[in-house]
Amino acid sequence: MPKEYQxxxxxxxxxxxxxxxxxxxxxxxxxxxxxxxxxxQALLDRKIxxxxxxxxxxxxxxxxxxxxxxxxxxxxxxxxxxxxxTSPGRNYKIAHHDSKDKRGIDVGFIYDHNLFRAEKKFxxxxxxxxxxxxxxxxxxxxxxxxxxxxxxxNHWPSRSGAGAAASAAYRAITGETLAYFHERIMEExxxxxxxxxxxxxxxxxxxxxxTDFALSSxxxxxxxxxxxxxxxxxxxPLVGKSLGxxxxxxxxxxxxxxxxxxxxxxxxxxxxxxxxxxxxxxxPDMVAAGDYPRPIPFGGMGKDVNENGFSDxxxxxVKVVEQD
Length: 324
Description:
Blueprint: E1 3-15, H1 26-32, H2 41-57, E2 66-72, H3 75-84, E3 92-96, E4 106-112, E5 116-124, E6 135-142, E7 148-155, H4 168-188, E8 195-200, H5 208-213, E9 216-217, H6 220-225, E10 231-233, E11 246-248, E12 251-253, E13 256-261, E14 271-280, E15 316-322
Parallel strand pairs: 1-2, 7-8, 9-10
Antiparallel strand pairs: 1-15, 2-4, 3-4, 5-6, 6-7, 8-13, 10-13, 11-12, 14-15
């Protein structure tokens, strides 16, 4: 029988270790400065408990099969998180890379080792003056049929500080980097290799960084027939429906996205994404009361803490089916 997997992504909103952590080097201490003050073990434990509860609820209580994450300080805090996930029968492992980001925040994967093996891991450096998060590529192998499934986790440069227009070039550079390595993957791996890019892109599906530089499209026909390696952006149906993965001044924004290459969308593909299965996960406890269904942040790192919060982003999820 075909095997169905839930692939998810979540920006965890500054999941940092405690003030004075022995797992933090001097460069990161200087970069984050006073923001870490007051971030106690009790607050970290509470935040991890809140995040883990949502992850455990995903996939009808089974937990995701693969979860990409961003805004994690290091592998240590990811391990703390995995220990708190209560989904039964899971054998979660971690794929992480310590990037050169100036604030020390990374991306990574939590995956069920009973279903997938992390065969190879690559960190793709983004060339810009100020260090930013790398793209993390993991070549997974399914245990069902030993099939290759490449996933690239993204957290593109922020709009904060310089603003959306002034920082757009940074995201264009990162989009070009993603497209470049997508092409390299298809040169080095079999031509039927399925590739899924996921993450917090800090731009929406219609922005040039996604359409012109990362080569993502809303048209399945274009993606399948293009001479270049395009991505099909699975989030387009959610744009304009007053749905958001993130809110800015009560405006719903779709920053968190899934991009699938043609080998995940053609009908006879051994690994096939189900476009209609895309969802923004909004369990009731995660949603702020009022007219705007915003996520409830946990805060910290210089922001007010709400111990009943989770993250300033909602998670997203999609189904992928592996055929016999």
